[in-house]
UniProtKB/TrEMBL annotation:
Residues 1-22 form the signal peptide. GO terms for cellular component: endoplasmic reticulum; extracellular space. It is found in: Secreted. The keyword Secreted applies. This is Mesencephalic astrocyte-derived neurotrophic factor homolog. Gene3D superfamilies: SAP domain, Saposin-like. PANTHER family: ARMET-LIKE PROTEIN (PTHR12990), MESENCEPHALIC ASTROCYTE-DERIVED NEUROTROPHIC FACTOR HOMOLOG (PTHR12990:SF5). Keywords: Disulfide bond, Secreted, Signal. Belongs to the ARMET family. GO terms for biological process: dopaminergic neuron differentiation; neuron projection development. It comes from Adineta steineri. Residues 31-128 form the ARMET N-terminal domain. Residues 132-173 form the ARMET C-terminal domain. InterPro entries: ARMET-like, ARMET_C, ARMET_N, SAP_dom_sf.
Length: 184
């Protein structure tokens, strides 16, 4: 009798444990490049293209030809196989589920990630707001990136030189925020 009660409690504990741990929160940055790019692409499809995997494949290849080279979106197109230089061809893993109406998040996070895990490793670089961040707390790498993104030369050695240069040219590149306008 005690062993039956023990197994019932054990069973209830296992079910409770599985329910609690099966509801992991979704990381919104997981597959963010794929989700954003495929969503943008899907919005360009005509109604007659949305249900045909062949038309979706053709349209995605055309879409990828227009994507700017050396961007995360271009790298995604390469991974999926939509570029002539692609080493793999997993475009069917995108076109068929998209034609069937499967949610884009599920296509990216499950189907495409299964064929090539690198797809979900692509992440957008977060832009640094130079008006709201304390430049002294940033790493030199981040300071170099700010100047590089602005097209400014950054051949300095000292961190203070990078900060000084950013402060000299930031009015040309960074729009003042509401809080910095009040200070003026």
């Amino acid at each position: 009798m005690h062993s039956i009660t023990y197994f019932i409690y054990l069973f209830i504990a296992l079910i409770t444990f599985s329910i609690v741990y099966s509801k992991k929160p979704v990381d919104e940055t997981h597959c963010e490049v794929c989700i954003k790019t495929v969503t943008t692409f899907a919005e360009t499809l005509a109604d007659d293209e949305k249900t045909s995997p062949e038309k979706i494949e053709k349209a995605f290849k055309t879409f990828c030809k227009k994507v700017k080279v050396d961007t995360k979106e271009h790298r995604l197109c390469y991974y999926i196989g939509a570029l002539e230089t692609s080493a793999t061809y997993a475009i069917g893993d995108l076109s068929k589920p998209l034609a069937w109406g499967i949610p884009i998040e599920k296509i990216c996070r499950e189907r495409l990630a299964k064929s090539n895990p690198q797809i979900c490793d692509l992440k957008f670089e977060k832009q640094i707001d130079v008006n709201s961040v304390d430049l002294n707390k940033l790493k030199v790498k981040d300071l170099k990136k700010i100047l590089s993104d602005w097209g400014e030369t950054a051949d300095f050695i000292e961190k203070s030189e990078f900060i000084k240069r950013i402060n000299e040219v930031k009015d040309k590149y960074a729009k003042p925020t509401d809080s910095t306008k009040k200070d003026l």
